[in-house]
Amino acid sequence: MDNLAVGLAIGLGTIGPGIGIGLLVSKGLEAIGRNPEATNKIQTNMILGIAFAEAIAIYALVVALILKFV
Amino acid sequence: MALHISISAEPIAHLAGVPITNSLFTGVIVSLLLLVFALSINIKPEKQLKPKTRFYIFLEMIIEALYNLNVDIAGAAKARVFFPLIATIFIFVICNNWIGLLPGVGTIGFLEKSEPASIVDISPIDQAYAQTHDAATQPATIAPEEHGETMVEPSENALSSEESIPVPSDSAESSHADTTSPEESSAHSGPKFVPFFRAATADLNTTLALALTAMFMVQFYGVKYLGLSYFTKFLNFSNPIFTFVGVLETISEFAKIISFAFRLFGNIFAGEVLLAVISFLIPVIAPLPFLGLEIFVGMIQALVFAMLTLVFINMATISHEEEH
């Protein structure tokens, strides 16, 4: 049962961030395609945004690791 | 040996009753190295620096890139004030992230008997003997005391101890002891592997301390630039909506601390777990791309930590009236 909880925690927890990162990168690439001169600025902000979205997945991962190892 | 993962840093020594954990030890070493490095560059007289070496120019390049990033976000005047804090956070975090990827960090260590505060360094043969010996004697008394999380495990232990076959019971014991919770592994009294080094940012205490420092400095600069009117962001009774917003702002300040701490800890610890698992499954070649990934993640997380601190500080120093 514990292992099931671990699997569910990380599996369900990464759905949202996965969608979020996908949206972020797609919009970022669209923006770069429209305005290639602004690549640097867009890329920096995109990576910052990805880090925010990824943090949610990391919370799920921390919960999963705590369930598994503590 | 079996996969060894511990979510918290293990103590490697005790100094006047205070446990010195391996992550604290590594963090101090990194800090000392950075200190010595900074002094050795800075102690030279000004004239000696003028004929710049390539290394010096490389360092300047990094610092200048950081500084330009600060100017982009905070503007030239404020960037000069915030830059030392931001650069310190960036350099400290990136060095601590990367030190965890060095060979030997997390793999060199000693075996600790499960009795608390007794550090015994024993050779593998002794350890194997102790393990089989313990397995033969102890589980008979310990198995009934287990919480009975599964029905199979106690009977399995009892079986292996009754038959007292050294090799299978040994492997079962060690793998079981290493992957279950601390109190369970101590109940099995197998020697526990404790690494000497562990990346400081892979310990929640370090990241929490960094997050508290960063958020304290946010409040500090907020008060420094706006005076006491900074607190009208949190306590504002001129309008019920503003009062409610103030409550939300207060909560979000604490949420930022937790978010900071868990983002860095989670990323770096997850990286260590990933590397450990991959090199456990396929020891050769396969971990290489993941090492590259972890170098990238370590840099990005250091950058994110520093940039978010800067953005929060910058937001705190802009008064509410200025925004509109």
Low-confidence stretches of chain A: none
Topology pattern of chain B, helix = H, strand = E? EEHHHHEHHHHHEHHHH
Rough outline of chain B: globular
State the CATH class of chain A: Mainly Alpha
Secondary structure category of chain A: mainly alpha
Number of helices of chain B: 13
Count the domains of chain A. 1
Keywords:
heterodimer, A: 70 residues, mainly alpha, F1FO ATP Synthase, B: 324 residues, 2 domains, two-stranded antiparallel sheet, 13 helices, 4 strands, 68% helix
Description:
The complex is a heterodimer of chains A (70) and B (324). With 70 residues, chain A is mostly helical. Chain A is 90% helix and 0% strand. Chain A has helices spanning 2-13, 15-34, 39-69. In chain A, helix 2 (15-34) packs antiparallel against helix 3 (39-69). The longest helix of chain A has 31 residues, at 39-69. Chain A starts with a helix and ends with a helix. The model of chain A has no long low-confidence stretch (mean pLDDT 88). Chain B is built from 13 helices and 4 strands. Chain B is globular and about 65 Å long. With 324 residues, chain B is mainly alpha-helical. Chain B folds into 2 domains: 24-104 and 198-323; 111-195, no CATH class. The A-B interface holds A 2, 44, 47-48, 51, 54-55, 58-59, 61-62, 65-66, 69-70 and B 5-7, 69, 149, 179, 181-182, 259, 262-263, 265-267, 269-270, 273, 300-301, 303-304, 307-308.
Give a summary of the structure in a few sentences.
The complex is a heterodimer of chains A (70) and B (324). With 70 residues, chain A is mainly α. Chain A has helices spanning 2-13, 15-34, 39-69.
Topology overview:
The complex is a heterodimer of chains A (70) and B (324).
Chain A: H1 2-13, H2 15-34, H3 39-69
Helix pairs in contact in A: 1-3, 2-3
Chain B: E1 11-15, E2 18-21, H1 22-42, H2 46-49, H3 54-74, H4 76-99, E3 109-112, H5 124-137, H6 139-142, H7 152-163, H8 166-179, H9 182-188, E4 192-195, H10 204-226, H11 240-281, H12 287-317, H13 320-323
Antiparallel strand pairs in B: 1-2, 3-4
Helix pairs in contact in B: 1-4, 3-4, 4-12, 5-8, 8-9, 10-11, 10-12, 11-12
